[in-house]
Amino acid sequence: MKTIFNYPSLVKSFIVALLAMAGLTAHAQTAQFEYDLKITADPAKRAAYLKQSGEAPSPYEQVFSLVKGSMQVATVVDKVDLRKDQYHINSTGTLAAVLATVLNDQKLIRDSVGANGPNGLVTNTYQEKRGNTELLIAKVDAPKSIINFYKVSSRSAPIGTAPYAGKLLDMLTVGYQFIGRDLPAKSVVLPVTDGRSLKTYTLVRGEPWDFPFDGAKVKAIRYYKTTSKDDTATFEIWFSEKEHVPLRSMIGLNAQYGATIQVDLKKIPKL
Fold first, then answer.
1. Closest to 110 (Cα-Cα) out of 135, 87, 132
2. pLDDT digits (tens, 9 = 90+) for 227-268
3. 231 and 216 in contact (C-beta within 8 Å)?
4. For the whole model, what pTM was predicted?
5. C or N terminus of the chain, fewer CB within 10 Å?
6. In 3-state terms, what secondary structure has residue 12?
7. 34: β partners
8. Strand (E) positions, the chain?
9. Contacts of 13 by beta carbon, 8 Å cutoff, 6+ apart
């Protein structure tokens, strides 16, 4: 009788496939991070700037005008998938109930995909959509060592380009860059895109903190961005000393906005 299947060969192939899947699982980390987003704003300062400059506020900026002093305005959920050689981070910011009603349930949607290697995360494509504004896309052209910027679709012609050297990050990967890696012992220079442009952040290692978190104290290290005459926006981030996850981020927008954004992690997920 003619043998149709080679069972030993099939079993061997099946075992090899299982081992490969097990290896992939061992190198994969998937976690969900949930944050409270608070804004401290001075609407009068923003209004005065707009009047002086003649600029029109973007639709998403309406949230600033509704904030009186300091106010929790949104919940942000980041879904982080770190695999052996690639990563995917998806982030959704949902406005609080009252603001969602006033602003027609606008959301902040961000998405980042790229490579995961020994030196950390390296952005390939970053996308951002703020409320009902146009989708912004930053996409790397690795052979040319440039990053292209698009609106709505990367199939259209880019609206701008920027050269870069070394590794590239975005506003999402900055926070998750050191999971499974050592925190920098000193200042670190990071090229970062926000979907519109490319900027160089110099993050300085600051003091260790006994950070108040989730009803207890957590050891954390503060890093802060240097500022200059041309870049007055501030950025601070506190990484947990154990897991290297972002416990708090603070962005001080330049004087033309008159606002500070603070993002606090609710609970450290199991990694």
1. 135
2. 888 778 889 999 999 999 999 999 887 666 677 889 999 999
3. no
4. 0.80
5. N
6. helix
7. 77
8. 29-41, 69-82, 86-95, 107-117, 120-130, 136-141, 146-151, 160-163, 169-170, 188-193, 198-213, 216-225, 234-240, 246-252, 259-265
9. none
